[in-house]
Amino acid sequence: MKKIIIEGNHLLHGKIRISGAKNSAVALVPASLLCDEEVIIDSIPNISDIDALEEMLEYLNADVKRDKTTIKINSRNINNLEIPEKISKKLRASYYFMGALLGRYKEVTMFFPGGCPIGARPIDLHLKGFEALGAKVYEEGNKYTLIAEDLKGSNIYLDFPSVGATINIMLAAVKAKGFTTIENAACEPEIVNVATFLNNMGAKITGAGTTTIIVEGVDYLHKAYTEVIPDRIEAGTYIIAGALLGDNLVIENIIPEHIMSLLQKLKSMGVKMKLENGSIIVNKSRNLKPINIQTRVYPGFPTDLQQPITTLLNYCNGVSTILETIYENRFCNVEYLNKMGTNIKIEGRKISIDGPNELTGKQVVATDLRAGACLILAGLVAEGITEISDVEHVLRGYENIIEKLTNVGAKIRLEEIK
Ligand code: UD1
User: Out of 3, 107, 174, 313, which could bridge 320 as a Cys pair, Cβ 3.0 to 4.6 Å?
Assistant: First the structure.
């Protein structure tokens, strides 16, 4: 068990470089299973979700070489083994092994994926997509076996533009016979990253990044290289840190279009920031205007930044609101923020944040990844000492968060709890 300890209220000055996107990397790595030759993925973030995927690849006997930012994977000699629960539950993205192994072997057995406890997270849309391609799905408790005599292209309409289902169906369809059309597909930048990687291997995917994706099946995928796009959620989290405490804090390696919804909201609040050649300079901002946010699929406001921005909304003059439309239970951070001094009310899927209030350091719990990010931001700005437990969640998704924040002047450390 680990905890993070923060002495709050120190300005942040210097540069933070954004790492490769977690949600891209966790799909790119399983995508490599479709290829019989070596693939190279650059700008891989050093986070525990990637460690877990590496473990899964090695369990299947893939040849994996990983250094600081690059992973080389050769899946030529893998075994299509049943993936046990103790491995699959380590992360949500283990579900991509379903699409990739089904696409390669037309058969896969694995257990239900893990992930943050933020409400029901079914995989019915993934399974419907696999069935449309010709797979039969057998469920036995938490265990799923998918078998297809043949995978054949199909027209698939997603009832909801799920990121995971869109990517998983692409993975299963790249080697299916004929054309697959995914309608109402998710448009997140991570999907474009994965489609580009598959196309670099010889796949024929068009329309990624729009609501209609067309996959023409191919027989063989060859060696390829790709780079993980910068993490837009990590970027957003540090931009919010800059709005809370920045003294010309520079956030480098961002793609502004990927965080447009956040930047627009910050602008309407009155946050002091300036875009400059792939970087953004942010300064501590107060007397902010209250705003209303609804989380939406891309390019709408990302649910993954809803909890981090709650800390900043505490510094608006008046009542701000957040309506969470994607997940049913993503407000576990609120109890702890209120303990630290915010005045937040939860009504179903909506919260009202009445500010501004001074925050004081307290003992709090990171119940999930982005709740943890929210509480780190609160700890950075609060007076006194904040102790955050269960921070394994945070380390799953933020590369070197302690070092990155320490380098810009935060007083933050990680401690092992005995
Ligand atoms: C991905 C991201 C996660 C982000 C989310 C929404 C990864 C590894 N994780 O998660 O950080 O918060 O997108 O941007 O990329 N749903 C169903 N049935 C399904 C699939 C999803 O009902 O088969 C529902 C989910 O319960 C949820 C909503 O659709 O309410 C969004 O889920 P989805 O877009 O699939 O999110 P993930 O891929 O799990």
Answer: 313
Residue nearest to atom 33 of ligand 1 (CA): 162
In the reported structure, the alpha carbon of residue 306 is separated from the centroid of ligand 1 by a whole-number distance in angstroms of 15
Q: Is the CB of 165 under 6 A from ligand 1?
A: yes
Asked if 238 and 16 touch (Cβ cutoff 8 Å), the reply is yes
Cα 263 to ligand 1 centre (Å): 23
pLDDT digits (tens, 9 = 90+) for 66-115: 998 999 999 999 999 998 888 888 888 999 999 999 999 999 999 888 77
DSSP letter (8 states) at residue 256: G
* Segment 368-414, tens digit of pLDDT: 999 999 999 999 999 999 999 999 989 989 999 999 999 999 999 99
Does any ligand 1 atom lie closer than 6 A to the CB of residue 26?
yes
Strands (E), 207-260: 212-216, 224-227, 246-252
Per-residue pLDDT, 246 = 98
Ligand 1 pocket test, candidate residues 22, 94, 167, 326, most atoms within 8 A of CB: 326
Q: In angstroms, what is the span from residue 13 Cα to ligand 1's centroid?
A: 35
- Stretch 137-161: mean pLDDT, rounded? 95
Torsion sign (Cα): 93, 94, 98, 104: positive
Indicate if 316 belongs to the active site.
no
What is the per-residue pLDDT for 414?
97
The CA distances from residue 266 to 247, 314, 316, in Å, are: 17, 13, 11
The answer to pTM > 0.85 is: yes
Q: Which residue has the tokens 């982005």?
A: 370
CA distance 236 to 372: 14
Structure letter (DSSP) for residue 278:
T
Handedness of CA 262, 263, 265, 270 (dihedral sign): positive
- In the chain the domains, ranked by start, together with CATH numbers, are 2-19+230-416 (3.65.10.10), 22-227 (3.65.10.10)
Is the sign of the CA dihedral 398, 332, 310, 348 positive or negative?
Answer: positive
Environment class of 139 (CB within 10 Å of its CB; exposed 0-12, middle 13-18, buried 19+):
exposed
What percentage of the chain carries pLDDT values higher than 70?
A: 99
Residue of 35, 116, 187, 316 with catalytic role: 116
